[in-house]
Write a structure and sequence with these properties.
The complex is a heterodimer of chains A (about 120) and B (about 120). Chain A has about 120 residues and is mainly β. Chain B has about 120 residues and is mostly beta strands. Chain B is globular, with a radius of gyration of 13 Å. Classes of the chains: A mainly beta (about 120), B mainly beta (about 120).
């Protein structure tokens, strides 16, 4: 079946430093899935950060970027300069065949940005 | 932004009892979802619901589980009877266009503890 792997459970970065959160996916479908990053800020529900539905394309939002790499089956999340307000839990997700209306989530990466 | 509300935020019950978790989705949304997250594990898809019917369900959606949305009110997840392994945080989500093309809006979760 389809699955998403996030290898880091927790990441700590100093403010203004760069960030990368790793995500790889696996699918048994011959078609390419849609890929998403969701984020949960403290005290809030999970919300969409960005999505990319075409392999090779890059998505961006709030200074974050992720590139859909079908060769390495990766969708890493990056930011050039993090802020304290970016502290949250980030989830990579895959949506696609055969269940068009189901998202499969990674285990999440908790980001702590230190002042 | 749009909010999904979940009631209760936390419930403790004895094994074998019935529990109903309530979700107040975004008002004009058409697709509804329940996800389950056991502490330290991934958030896993349980079921999705559209036009008054279950569209898809996972292996985690046991016979003891049921969902409904009577008269456009709360979208509910009922577990009867509960088992120890049902202890988890249950997340409700809603979407206007569906998970794969649209955006899911999540509640903050209902933490269920079965003793």
């Amino acid at each position: 079946g389809d699955s998403v792997t996030q290898t880091e459970g927790q990441v700590t970065v100093s403010e203004s430093k760069s960030l990368i959160i790793n995500c790889t996916y696996s699918t048994t479908s011959i078609a390419y899935p849609n890929l998403f990053w969701y984020v949960r800020y403290p005290g809030e529900g999970l919300q969409l950060l960005l999505k990319v539905i075409t392999a090779g394309q890059k998505g961006s939002s709030r200074g974050f970027e992720a590139t859909y790499n079908k060769e390495t089956t990766s969708f890493h999340l990056q930011k050039a300069s993090v802020q304290e307000s970016d502290s949250a839990v980030y989830y990579c997700a895959l949506g696609g065949m055969p269940n068009y209306n189901v998202l499969y989530f990674g285990s999440g990466t908790k980001l702590t940005v230190e002042p | 932004g749009p909010k999904v509300l979940q009631i209760p935020s936390h419930q403790i019950i004895d094994m074998g009892q019935m529990v109903t978790l309530n979700c107040d989705p975004v008002s004009n949304h058409l697709y509804f979802y329940w996800y389950k997250q056991i502490l330290g594990q991934q958030m896993e898809f349980l079921v999705n619901f559209y036009n008054g019917k279950v569209m898809e369900k996972s292996k985690l959606f046991k016979d003891q589980f049921s969902v409904e949305r009577p008269d456009g009110s709360y979208f509910t997840l009922k577990i009867q009877p509960t088992a120890l392994e049902d202890s988890a945080v249950y997340f409700c989500a809603s979407s206007l266009d569906g998970a794969n093309t649209g955006q899911l809006y999540f509640g903050e979760g209902s933490k269920l503890t079965v003793l």
